[in-house]
Design a protein that fits this description.
The structure is a homodimer. Helices cover about 40% and strands about 25% of the residues of chain A. The first copy, chain A, is built from 15 helices and 17 strands.
């Protein structure tokens, strides 16, 4: 494989002032183009460090991508470090100079000291950023391309996508993009996945697979240079995990539920206690959700459960607000009030304090469909936010599994 | 200075599948604690690479922080690589084993192969993550602390803040932290902040200040080695931005609103259309929210606005569901139904499609208090998610400003 290193330069990154997104953008773009990123390194604005890193990296990789340290200010040291490390004289770059002068003249602007500095590059450099009013250049050294891109993310991205990718393709024409699939799972733990998946990895040595927890989901990423392998392995994995796989790619759980509801012409309403509106929020993240989502009731207090949903006071007195019968009345109540086909209700303890009917994480989820009302009890673990999220996802997943059956 | 390296392990990072935020979090936390981060490196799930990086880094730095590659799946290789690189036998860690077994037994879950793998650590390892239901351990090697933390960001952050920082302080007691304050602003733009703040930066040359957009908030971070400077500068900034500063540190806007409601003994209910439950979700993120939040109505359809909140059909016909009178009826309706002091209502277009009464981002927010009902019109910009968030925050902020006045 043709592999490279990404090197991010900037004190602000090491000091935790700025989140570096450039290495992610470069890695994503070049991986999709079929190149391999072997390492990502972030270092400070220090000439000696830059020089050492450059000299060490050249023999190890097929290409290098630097970002940052190219601006006109005193703390930008990349150009001089590169020239010294590679023993190239610094000189005015004719292309950069004429282009910059032309651009400034058209705008009626003066050629200033800062502009002058931008045209001084190591001998042999090819300017990359000039069309974007930005810095950036390329050098070929020991037959390997070295790209030096600005640190400003939108400038970097533009030069990367419009210049670097095609340039790399020209230099390494045999590189082809990999095929990729992302499968999204819910209702199964990473350890359970691990138990089941090892056989598939043995069957397909060409397949690269990673499992990524995306709370509360788990994503399985399959990558391979062979389209056939991808299709066959994906099919096997789907047969293995069945309805634990709820979607592919960028599809979210609410989107999947929305699609099923629309297809079957069913309408939904929600009655939420501990989630406080999170289920409604997730559902209404789907554009066009008004076509299947009628309304929701956030019945946080007992009085609201009684007034809005018609849960009998006697039920709450006898069984508690967090109980099977209350969840049942809530689900049936919201279905009736909203004149919908499916009523989803959740009640439980999100924490941090436990309630009279159980510890933190005790949750009842009720789903009332045209035929039957089903209530399940769960014991979730985690923070208040995690318990709310687990409850919301589990509720949506109950609807999905019902609509699939 | 006491300096360290951050090493992120994970193919998903190099492949551009996941944006690494762990190195930023570690850098930020340790910089604030007075430590220096010399490099950040991201490498793949490759045993040989992990071993080489570890062996090279130990002599160069005072501490090392690894994240990732500790999970129970086949692609997690950190533990074995560490054991081999440092020539330490792998053995079952008694502390990790007993804790994990206990936790699983409590949950009525089985001890699987994946769990078993989590308890196998290099000899001498001290488990760090076990209290957080996570992996993670520490080793002392050549008198230097090496921390191996899970890659899952929220687990990593928790262990970092609650275990690693204090441990490093114990090992390097002469390192002193800078004083720091975070001010949280809402309802003012970054350029407006910039305009006003430059004078303060001139007055306090010892002060380091950064403004970080945290959509939809903006955070101003003040840092200085001098406590007095911090207090004086913070006071000046508070006088400058007044009620645009809603909180400090980790205080969220819903927490501030909650505190004001509780202090004044007032109860709240919400009626949400375009936000679909997001406001209720944000409010119920505050522990103990049942003390002031009665209920919410997610009246997504017109029928629900009529049935649940008593908005007259004639009003919706004449003015539309996204209008000043509808927002007014919604706010007053939910206040009445829920028997509360403040009713908050939002109606508008989150997008992507515009509605009959205006473009995407047209939002009316109504607040009905014991004395008066106020409705404001907004024109927000952004994605569906951003418009929902801006609406929710603006609604909560209206309550905050009302309670402060």
């Amino acid at each position: 494989m043709v592999s490279g290193e990404i090197i991010i330069i900037g004190d602000e990154i090491l000091e935790g002032e700025v989140l570096d997104t450039n290495s992610f953008d470069v890695a994503k773009t070049l991986s999709e183009a079929g190149f391999c990123i072997a390492r990502m390194l972030a270092i400070g604005d220090n000439e000696d460090v830059i020089k050492n890193v450059l000299k060490e990296a050249i023999p190890q990789y097929d290409f290098l991508i630097f970002t940052g340290g190219l601006g006109p200010t005193w703390d930008d040291k990349t150009v001089r470090a590169v020239a010294e490390a590679l023993d190239l004289p610094l000189e005015q770059n004719a292309e950069a100079y004429s282009h910059l002068q032309e651009t400034l003249a058209k705008q009626g602007k003066n050629f200033l000291g800062g502009h002058q500095k931008m045209t001084i590059l190591p001998r042999g450099a090819k300017p990359l950023g000039i069309a974007y009013r930005a810095c950036g250049f390329k050098l070929i050294y020991q037959n390997k391309p070295l790209y030096f891109l600005p640190g400003v993310p939108h400038q970097m991205r533009q030069i990367l996508k419009e210049k670097v990718v095609s340039d790399l393709r020209g230099i390494y024409p045999h590189v082809t993009a990999w095929y990729k699939k992302k499968l999204r799972l819910f209702g199964i733990s990473e350890s359970q996945i691990q138990e089941k998946i090892s056989l598939i990895l043995e069957t397909y040595p060409q397949l690269k697979m990673s499992s990524l927890p995306h709370f509360p989901e788990i994503h399985l990423i399959l990558r391979t240079p062979n389209k056939n392998t991808l299709e066959r392995a994906a099919l096997e994995i789907k047969n293995l995990f069945k309805e634990n796989i709820f979607g592919e790619g960028d599809q979210t759980l609410p989107e999947v539920v929305a699609k099923l509801l629309l297809k079957q012409g069913l309408k939904l309403a929600t009655a939420e206690s501990l989630t406080g509106g999170l289920i409604g929020h997730l559902i209404t993240q789907v554009p066009g959700s008004s076509d299947f989502f009628e309304q929701g009731a956030i019945t946080y207090s007992n009085q609201a459960k009684i007034d809005v949903l018609g849960v009998p006071l006697a039920i709450i007195r006898e069984h508690g607000a967090v109980s099977e019968p209350t969840a049942r009345y809530m689900a049936e109540g919201i279905k009736k009030i909203a004149h919908v086909d499916i009523g989803l209700a959740v009640t439980g303890y999100a924490g941090p304090t436990a309630g009279p009917e159980g510890p933190v994480g005790t949750v009842f989820i009720g789903m009332s469909t045209p035929k039957v009302t089903e209530v399940k009890k769960f014991q979730f673990e985690g923070s208040r936010t995690e318990i709310k999220l687990l409850t919301a996802f589990t509720g949506l997943d109950m609807i999905r599994r019902y609509l699939l059956s």
